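Known limitations

Structure tokens in this collection are predictions and should be treated as such. Users comparing against experimental data should check residue numbering before alignment. To illustrate the layout, the record for Threonylcarbamoyl-AMP synthase is reproduced below. The input appears on top and the generated tokens appear beneath it.
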Amino acid sequence: MKTLRMYPTSLNERFLDEAVDVLEKGGIIIYPTDTLYAMGCDALNNGAIERLCKVKGVNPQKQTLSIVCDGLSMASEYARIDNEAFRILRSNLPGPFTFILPAATTLPKVFKGRRTVGVRIPDNPISRALSERLGHPVLSTSIPQDEECGDPSAFADEYAGIASLLIDGGEGDGIPSTVVDLTDSRDPEIVRDGKGELI
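Generated tokens:
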């Protein structure tokens, strides 16, 4: 697996282009977010999504799939966001949250039968830049990491035959995102406590 070292405070344009090229060709990458490291693929590529789900043992018909967007404008193309949900998202993003929202029909067929989608806009310029350059979301699934082992090289070997590229953005913190169910925006429900504290 090729490793590109890049930090959120100093984005490398050439490395970002290289990572997006892998995504556009249906490949899987490992990259940093503002919580755990994640594996990602093009969220509009059915084949890539199915491969990533198989690797992680995720059943896309039963589990909520999450997409990483570069901002609220992109998120609103793939999830239905009412006024109250928009207010909550605007107050808390970018940040360490996954918001479960009603899925829009623009998502690919692997999402069919799923009424919801997890939306992330991480407070990490690398992950947002990937979505921005791709022009649409990156499907994302966290890689389990404990708090003592946030070094991406420690799990790179484990996924060497799966991911084509690792963006090493420094140590992760081992704490997952806070998951908030916003399918009823008047009654947000915290499904999983994580790094984020909802405002």
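For this record: The mean pLDDT is 92. The domain at 2-192 is CATH 3.90.870.10 (DHBP synthase). Please report discrepancies through the issue tracker.
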